[in-house]
Amino acid sequence: MFMTKSLVFLLIFFATSINLNAQIKDEKYFDKKVKFGAVKPEEFSTKAFGKDSLAAAVELFDIGNLQFSFSNTGDWNYTFERHKRIKIINKDGYDYANFEIPIYHSNGSSKESLMSVSLASYNLENGKVVQNKVAKDEKFLNKKNKNIDINKYTLSNIKEGTIVEIKYIIKSDFIYNLRSWYFQKEIPCLWSDFTFTLPEYFKYKLNMQSFVPITLVEDRDFQQIFSGNVSSLDAGSPNERFNFNCNSSFKRWVAENVAAFKNEPYVACDDDYLSKLELELQSTHFKNDIIKNYSSTWETIIEMYKKAEGFGEIIKPNNFTKNLVSTIIKPLDTEKEKMSSLFSYTQKALKWNGINRDFADEKSIKSILEAKTGNSAEINLCLLNLLNTANLNAKPMLISTRENGAHPGYPLSSKFNYVVVQVKIANQNYLLDATNPVLATGYLSPNALNHKGFLMDLDSLKGDWVMLEPEKISRSLITNFFSINADNQLIGSINKRYTEYSALDARDKYFDAANQEEYLNTYKSNKPNLKINTYTQANLEKLDENYNEIFSVELSDYIEEAGNLLYLNPMLFEKTKENPFKLDERNFPVDFNYPKEENYKFILKIPTGYVIDKLPTAIAYKLGDNSAVFSYKVVQSESEILVNSKITIANTLYGPSQYFEIKELFKKIVEKQAEPIVFKKL
């Protein structure tokens, strides 16, 4: 019999997939074994293919292997090997000569080790392959945070046609979440090859996300031998040497001539649409032991969060939080007033450190509050504790943020990386997220608006998916009042009104600046020849109200004089300069994060001594289902011109079938907003 240590620490550390790859022992690449450094002259003639013929670089191969091992201390771990080779085609591909290898370690003894790494660049000189290995001054170690170290490498002697190569091995204790394998990336790949060897004691969920052809070319079982030293659980017992056999499974997946992933705006997370394989521990069944489930059911996952020191334990009321809550709320406060007071207190007491987590690293609410800063879980779990202490009906909701990717929907705890709070008062639900000091009650951070969240009842161990789509349209209304002076300057005011998430975005920009002067300088930075004479605002800190800004301004060089004509673009610096949608077709949705409307009005007094020579024509373009509309109107009176450009995007998501309509919508916007007003001198 052999022993294995508890896997509990694995459940509370890094519940996100690690996006790395690996290398196999018996790989095939052009039917020959690949060795590091064995670059042949003919490889330099490799070109990108198909729709990627203009790619800046191409992966010749990316080969990986992940397999388990048993340590001398009686713990299971795994080794992760990767070997890849890239040809740089032009100067835009020079960045592919830079490599990063993240290495993780927990707050305890669990860690990863970079066992070996080999890097080199190759150039073809007079028909011969010349190798340049990485120099000492081309290696860097960057500590991203207390749990992640980034090993960085920069290869030299890079030019168009250079081939770069990396091969490394990592040993990891974190067997709950294994490293994901990506068959598709931002550059094309001729050959992607991944193998996975798994002892019979482990069962993993294999989540294959495939938008390109991926073939399981090998799937077999075999006998595997492990050995190690294991200490007896009895104190003072000597180490025992042992060997044991077990059944293991071997799987190998291959993808060939994989097209590059074409990035476009309005994608929540590219990761959601890359072809990849993810692995999460579902259960273990060791000899002479019972089956232990880790993520096989939602009930198991909820129970894990409930028992975790960094989650369930931290939200339990105690004497410290009881005393604290008594100083924040009043006995006669309504439940809504109590909620608002505790929410406001948490927002002001704790500053988000920029790290998204679904577990707290600190051990208690007191230590979190004393630190005055924390990750997203520490802040919102602190809020949940205070709400529980005040006897409000509050529950945690787990979310995978937009940058972390969509949750697949089946029991998978590792995909969550954020937690917020839902409070139910008089049959109305309120979502609370205290990570941002300018978030109003009922709003989540825009990064948390990833379409759905998993609401947990820790008492019944039940959970439900809750849709997070904002119901209200976030509006920005910009109204300009201008006249033209004798020097062809625009003199007037810019009035802005924001609602919902548009208001949040505007307030964020203001509070991100050190002071008002810095904010106004930042505002002017991309608006040439703008002079701000006065600036006022309304409802800056009234987070439940619309936010307003008024600028009194002067604008120079926005009017072009040509003979007896004056040309003026009424959109000024608010016009859409180019169409963000450039693909001929798109196989993934367009995600606008939340419904929005941009309403721009430009009111101009006709300059003395001039008449209107030409005005932009009106247009109205809308999608077939009326969910997105662009209108451009021009109204003329004897003394004034009113131009109104209005873009309404009523839905958050638009599927691939609507891509052409969305692309055409923005084409119309770019074309129309570029049209000038032309005045003619009398």
Extended strand count:
36
How far apart the termini lie comes to 101 Å
Biggest sheet overview: 8 strands, mixed
Calculate Rg over CA atoms: 30 Å
Instruction: Give the strand line-up of the largest sheet.
Output: 5-4-8-2-1-10-13-12
| Content of β-strand | 35-45%
Instruction: Tell me the overall shape.
Output: globular
Helix amount:
10-25%
Outline the structure in words.
By secondary structure, the protein is mainly beta. Helix content is 14%, strand content 40%. The strands form eight sheets. The protein has an eight-stranded mixed beta sheet, with no helix packed on it. It has an eight-stranded mixed beta sheet with strand order 25-26-24-23-30-34-33-32. Strands 20-19-18-21-22 form a five-stranded antiparallel beta sheet, covered by helices on one side. α4 (335-349) packs antiparallel against α6 (376-389). The protein is globular and about 100 Å long. The protein starts with 7 loop residues before the first helix and ends with a strand. Mean pLDDT is 90; it is low at 1-32 and 231-237.
